[in-house]
Amino acid sequence: MMKVVIIGGGPAGIRACRTIKILRPDMDVIVIRPEAKSLIYCAMPYVLEDKIDFEKIYKKDELITGVGASLIKASVVAVDLSNKTLDLDNGSRISYDRLLIATGAEPILPDFVPAGLENVFVFKREDHLLSIHNKLKEGAKKAIVVGAGSIGIEMAQAFKHKGLETHLIEASSHLLPSILDKDMSELVEEKMDENGIHLHLSTMVSEVRGNRFAEAIVLSDGARITLSSDDIVLFSVGMRPNVDLFKDSGLGIDRDGIIVNERMETNIEGVYAAGDCTSFKSVIDGRPIPGKLATNAVPMGKVAGRNIAGRQDYYEGFVNGAATIAYGVRVGGTGFNETVARKRGFKNLIVAKAETTAMFPIFPEPGFVKVKLIVNADTGDLLGAQVVSTMCVTEKVDILSMALQNKLSLDRIAKLSYSAQPYQSFLPANNAIVMAAEDALRQLEDRRRG
Ligand SMILES: Cc1cc2nc3c(=O)[nH]c(=O)nc-3n(C[C@H](O)[C@H](O)[C@H](O)COP(=O)(O)OP(=O)(O)OC[C@H]3O[C@@H](n4cnc5c(N)ncnc54)[C@H](O)[C@@H]3O)c2cc1C
């Protein structure tokens, strides 16, 4: 019987396991992960904000065992990819015919932070969540969140909700810099500010002072925020792939993780990798791009699973659709924002925008939806999009991700066939995605006319 071992019980590992067992019940599939219970990471900030009970964020082991796979709760501590064996921290050795590495990523704590400070945290595992939860229960009064990506934005709101004096520190000149451009993040900034979160933009943490606990944070503008041992400093400054175990294994690894092809194969035959531990490419320009999102880990896990099960399946690249919410303002983006597009060599851009109300404008409070498209002016290709609204943005972001994945022309996007309903959209006359595409087409035409 073909024996498949999966290291990691996150979204990539679980999805691969289920895919293999559903396609090939005859294969012996074993998932190895250390956690007593797997977590829904995306929901963790909302536990701290009292929006969900703790027990709701645990995934059931039946996701794995229910399809006939085995689950071993242990850590892999050594690998021998030539002899196809893994050593576990429980002393056992396990062999495999095919291996899937889905070890994820871990949050980065910058090197300049002294080790072992008891009020300094990162946020990913259950022990991080429990330690911060305990700090809040014990009467923390101040929170410093470093990094204003989605996790930073969500955690700052949770700390503020718990009554803490909350500071959000971001090196970029605006919030959510990897999703939004400055013009689209202004409302998030306004909302965070209005709700009493102290924003420190274009600011870096230059020093963390303290021995047993962080007593003060010194910022690049010279400001100093003092702290007590009860207070909280949270670094949410990105993730690094969890690949130390494979350093001398012969696997091809770069800064973003284990290098995989479109079949999720590594450079070693029979060894696959998927999810946050991998280095992969953008679907837009085919060049490497970070993509540490559950919405990438899941399709990668499925593709790896299908290929391990003997099918031929391909994952074309990251689109990186992502979203978050700040005090009722929903924001999301997909593909490249302007800054990322320029950094990747697209110098000649068209920026198109449209705005409608989120409901029929005849309602007393119809809200709004803003769409921004970033287009390569040389080719007319869509490079990325951003959406800000008082209503859900994810389905609009997904339409635009679909356009990017399928390399739809602006003309096709402008011909999108959409639905309209008084409580859920603008009048049938207009749709913000279509209007933005029409704006981009007009600008392209103007440029071509000279
Ligand atoms: C607070 C937070 C909020 C997030 N919000 C979102 C969101 O809204 N949307 C979104 O798309 N993404 C979100 N993410 C990112 C998302 O959670 C990750 O991209 C996703 O979990 C990656 O899945 P994975 O399976 O690749 O890795 P992981 O989920 O990290 O799983 C890795 C697994 O490997 C195991 N492992 C590691 N080393 C070993 C070893 N040596 N032996 C055995 N097992 C090992 C780990 O213990 C774990 O079980 C969020 C992340 C966090 C932390």
Question: What are its keywords?
Answer:
binds flavin-adenine dinucleotide, 3 domains, five-stranded parallel beta sheet, FAD/NAD(P)-binding domain, 27% strand, alpha/beta, 450 residues
Short overview:
The chain is of the alpha/beta class and 450 residues long.
Describe what you observe in this structure.
This protein is an alpha/beta fold and 450 residues long. The protein folds into 3 domains: 3-35 and 59-105 and 240-308, 3-Layer(bba) Sandwich (FAD/NAD(P)-binding domain), CATH 3.50.50.60; 120-237, FAD/NAD(P)-binding domain, CATH 3.50.50.60; 328-449, FAD/NAD(P)-binding domain (3-Layer(bba) Sandwich), CATH 3.50.50. 26% of the residues lie in helices and 27% in strands. The chain has helices spanning 11-23, 44-48, 62-65, 126-137, 150-161, 182-194, 294-308, 338-343, 394-405, 410-414, 432-449, and strands at residues 3-7, 28-33, 38-39, 58-59, 70-73, 76-80, 85-88, 93-95, 98-101, 105-107, 120-121, 142-146, 165-169, 198-200, 205-209, 216-219, 224-226, 232-235, 239-241, 253-254, 257-259, 271-273, 278-281, 288-289, 322-326, 329-335, 349-356, 369-376, 382-389. The strands form 8 sheets. It has a 5-stranded parallel β-sheet with strand order 5-2-1-9-22, covered by helices on one side. Strands 11-18-12-13-14 form a 5-stranded parallel β-sheet, covered by helices on one side. Strands 25-26-29-28-27 form a 5-stranded antiparallel β-sheet. Strand 6 (76-80) and strand 7 form a beta hairpin. Helix 1 runs parallel beside helix 7. It is globular. The chain starts with a strand and ends with a helix. Flavin-adenine dinucleotide binds at residues 7-13, 32-35, 41-42, 44-45, 75-76, 102-105, 123-124, 151, 242, 245, 275-276, 292-295, 297.
